[in-house]
Amino acid sequence: MSTQTVPETGELGTADPLLAVDDLHVQFRSRDGLVHAVNGVSFTVNAGETLGVIGESGSGKSVTSQAIMGILPPTASVTGEIRYRGEDLLKLPEQRRRAIRAESVAIVFQDALSSLNPVFTVGFQIAELFRKHRGMSRSEAKQEAVRMLDLVRIPNAKERVRSFPHEFSGGMRQRVMIAMALALDPDVLIADEPTTALDVTIQAQVMDLLRDLQAERDMGLILITHDMGVVADVCDEIAVMYAGRVVERAPVRDIYATPAHPYTRALLRSIPRVDRKGSALDVIEGLPPNLARIPQGCSFHPRCPFVQERCRLDEPPLYQVGYGRDSACHYWEEVVDA
Amino acid sequence: MSETTSATRRNEPVIEVKDLVKHFPLTQGIVFRRTVGHVHAVDGVSFDVHRGETLGLVGESGCGKSTIGRLLMGLERPTSGQIKVLGEDISTLGDKDLRRIRRDIQIVLQDPYSSLNPRMTVGDIVGEPFEIHPEVAPKGSRRARVQELLDVVGLSPEHLNRYPHQFSGGQRQRIGIARALALRPKVIVCDEPVSALDVSVQAQVVNLLDELQEEFDLSYVFIAHDLSVVRHICDRIAVMYLGKLVELGSDDQITEHPTHPYTQGLLSAVPVPDPELRDKRQRVPLEGDVPNPADPPSGCRFRTRCFKAEDVCAHEEPLLQLRDGSPHPSACHFAEERDVVHARS
User: Fold this and answer.
1) What secondary structure does DSSP assign to A77-115, as a single string?
2) Which DSSP string corresponds to B73-140?
3) Separation CA B300–CA B314 (nearest Å)
């Protein structure tokens, strides 16, 4: 395969954000009818910035990341725009799109064991990237693989390139995944629940690594997770997703200090904290909606303590509630004051 | 017996564990099997649980906490040591007596997707314990009893004839809890009961467990890796590392005044949902992975990852006991209090 070049910064003007998702919709056909997995999601990520995307299972956060990577199954219909340095990935010809996605946008999945090929050594799998995309020889590529394993702080990298995925522990395997994602020097890294399967101690190591690598390489990082603790530690900005929509978007400090959406507020109040001993936890009653039958009006209204008549009928737009802050709640002022 | 300061000791112990050891043989060869070593899953653990109390068992994966849960249930036989449930040593009991004891000790498993039989209705799942212990609920009253149980755990009694796949994860965990409650046990072993659930649902299940404890005067052994949940629900916490307890104390002693470097490392690794505290908290570094439990380090098992390790740690195994630097039992030669969960002022 020949090497495709990807535009450098400045070629298309610096006004364009690194990655912009604009009014993204994803629908799946299923036996239950049309499943509305993502319903008008917009956000941007700039170089060196970390965006945290938070949501429960079924909120559409992983589908969004898969849409960006272009790895959704054929049953999905995707509309909207996903712009990388101003170029809409959804409208580009297949070849060009693949080139951009291969070189510039990378992803790390939650489950490292099933994302790696069990019958090849990790060294081979990393080296393959350099051989395919950089046209390196076997021995050059092998050396690069060692360098990558060193970079993600795997001890004794020279020996470990010859190991198979099952010979690594969970944390080390996740490091291998990060090494593969960073091999071609991407500008944007999507980390989809990168530490969910790991112990807290290993989680801390992997998050430290991600944070350091991001700062070193000035990457845009999209961290997808359900853990409000992890995002508080590393993110600059946070987008909270519910039923396929971004319901609140804000700088990290604001969202924890004064959440402006009832869902964010309830999420924050339902987590037990090690540094505080509380009484009974606040719960969010009920369940997230079935995405084939999203409630009319605000999708959160059946579970919302602030609900009023209008919420059952009108779907709230994203109201601007402050500098760089949006909330999709008609009554955000009450939520902030509560 | 543990030597906790007895603020939480309500009355008689319902579980007493003494010098519990469980080794799993490692075998090689297919035709001629031979044992080539042992995995030291649990290696000399002692603790007790009192009536109405919740004991938390925390540690990284592979530290042996789930094995303890299985040993308590009599699902595994200990290699040596003693487990007394309500005064009876279950490690010496035969199958028939064990069955009788299991009425009093039940388990809630981690994964609500694989721990419920997909071919059985909810009514059959929750009512199955009555097949084995018919004396608890005579045949005629079972249906009513099952409906009552579903009501207790917050499910609608009409759901009796539904199948597990028709429920969400949180609801399935409630079914698992109803099944555990069916025989009116005194003790419930909760093996990671909320770690597979979403945050908003986690809180519902944690609160349910709290209410049930009040209502039925239950004792819990709460096995988990999530320290914030453990802190919320437990009266006392035992911290495990590689098959041994390294620290044991009340929830405040363990979370606010931990003295073992491992506990400190574990606590400081828990992310706190408050960006204001970013970089203000003390981090106790924990490098590397847990060593191989088939070949644990000599002396203190934690020494390979410990920032305090000295020569003595390699030679002399620190016992779980009260120390100068620790008002509660701690298995570190250099035990010293340190608050790692709060920000430095």
Assistant:
1) EEEEEEEETTEETTTS-HHHHHHHHHHTEEEE-S-HHHH
2) TTSS--SEEEEEETTEEGGG--HHHHHHHHTTEEEE-S-TTTSS-TTS-HHHHHHHHHHH-TTTS-GG
3) 6
Tell me which chain B residues have a C-beta less than 8 angstroms from the C-beta of A201: 60, 265-266, 269, 286
Question: Residue A75: beta bridge partners?
Answer: none
Q: Which of A59, A43, A75, A63 is nearest to A107 (CA)?
A: A63
Beta carbons within 10 angstroms of residue B100's beta carbon: 12
pTM: 0.87
Rounded to whole angstroms, what are the CA distances from A333 to A249, A261, A321, A327?
Answer: 15, 9, 8, 10
Chain A residue closest in CA terms to B210: A280
> Residues A122, A116: contact at Cβ < 8 Å?
yes
Low-confidence ranges of chain B (pLDDT < 70): 1-11, 344-345
Cα B147 from Cα B127, distance rounded (Å): 10
pLDDT digits 0-9 by tens, A91-142: 988 888 888 888 899 999 888 788 899 999 999 999 999 999 999 999 999 9
Q: Testing the interface with B: which of A57, A193, A200, A210 to mutate, by most B Cβ within 10 A?
A: A200
- Rg of chain B (C-alpha set): 21
Q: At what angle do helices A122-134 and A138-151 cross, to 10 degrees?
A: 120
Strand order in the sheet with B326-330: B105-108, B187-191, B219-224, B54-58, B236-241, B244-250, B326-330, B321-323
Taking the CA of residue B139 and the nearest CA in chain A, the distance in Å comes to 34
Q: Render B200-256 in DSSP notation, one character per residue.
A: HHHHHHHHHHHHHHHHHT-EEEEEES-HHHHHHH-SEEEEEETTEEEEEEEHHHHHH
Place of tokens 């999709």: A328
Q: How far is B260 from B305, CA to CA, in rounded Å?
A: 13
The answer to whether the beta carbons of residues B225 and A203 sit under 8 Å apart is no
State how far the Cα of A222 lies from the Cα of A46, in Å rounded to an integer.
Answer: 10
Residue type for position A107: I
8 A C-beta contact, residue B155 and residue B147: no
How far is Cα B8 from Cα A278, in angstroms, rounded to an integer? 18
For residue A188, give Cα distances in angstroms to A47, A180, A223, A269, B52. Answer: 8, 14, 11, 32, 52
Bridge partners, residue B20, by sequence: B45
Contact flag B273-A229 (C-beta cutoff 8 Å): yes
Dihedral (C-alpha) A233, A238, A240, A244: value to the nearest 10 degrees?
-120
Predicted complex ipTM? 0.82
Reduced to 3 states, what is the DSSP secondary structure of residue A171?
Answer: helix
Bridge partners (DSSP) listed for residue A38: A26
**Residues A240-256: what's their mean pLDDT?**
94
At residue A319, φ and ψ (nearest 5 deg) are -85, 140
